[in-house]
Amino acid sequence: MTERDILMKQLSSYQFLVHDLKLYLDTHPNDRATIEKVNEYTAKLAPLRDKYEKLYGPLTTFDAEKNRWSWVNAPWPWENEEVE
Prior knowledge:
The chain is about 60% helix and about 0% strand. The protein is mainly α.
């Protein structure tokens, strides 16, 4: 597994966790412990996202503010070599 893959898995994990906790907060809006966890994991997510974008480019087209076409410079999924 490449460093890029590892970083993407970390990003995906934190994004899922934050999203899931926010869904919980929809029905438990006064749960202070969960609000603190959302803030903690959101803070951990930001540097991972910055690191990924610095090394590999924007994650989405919305992240490509400076160069709106920079997101297409990376290989498409079908262009990646299979690693076993």
